[in-house]
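Quick one: structure tokens for this chain, please?
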Amino acid sequence: MIKQLAGFVLLTTTLAGRPPGATDSRCTDMLKSALSSHNPDTRKEAVVALSLASERSPLLPLLVGMAADKDVQVRLAVVASLAEVKSRAALEALEKLLKDPVPEVSFAAAKALWNLHDPAGKQALLSVVQGETKTASSYIPAQMRQALRMMHTPATTFLYAMRQGIGFVPVPGLGEGIASMQSLLTDPGISGRATAVLLLGKDRDPALVPALKDAMYDQNWTVRAAAVHSLAVRNDPALKKDLAPMLDDEKEGVRLRAAAAYLRLSAIQVRHLSKPASK
């Protein structure tokens, strides 16, 4: 509790004198700026964060365009983020990535298309089975190979299985941020507490919300990012005001997730408001 209080004091002190709070336009500008950054790590963080956004987001064309990014890790993140998007543009981008010169990227695209029941994915996987296509290359350093292997560990498989968990009600047009989740789980600095926060994000019990809000002020950035993610996938627009301060977090991975989460909840809010009142 002392550490969490210290983290809260540090964050609130840092926020003093910062620009005005969250708005949809500010969140959009933050993500656009990150997607066009010269730093590939920043571009990757933005791509990962967008897995939390709506399929109808005006940023989706930019995400699709990132499939042509020169950085391998950015393109892998694009595959993971597009894997939940069922639009024609997303499928076309994934189909183009089947021809990526880096085997890890083309193989990831094949698996994504297979999961989306696209025939191109089946053909690509068949090519792998028949030994005609490689799935690994010298393009990927040893450290990243380890991260890719971790994407298939029981912890991640468990999180995928929880997509059908009790109490979860999917919202049409909204993904579950699988890329955001994978990125956190494969970060070497992730704490056990961050993993627990991600798991609790799938539980619909409203009594857990205060604990998730509290976790946003943890000293460990992976815990804060996990808390933002978990609050986002609760799909409750009332949580926008709680996510807003995280737009000024010192860590890029937290800020960009918060921006995408804010836009996600705005989209849900608009959808709710546009529904005709029940008689």
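The two ends are 48 Å apart (CA to CA).
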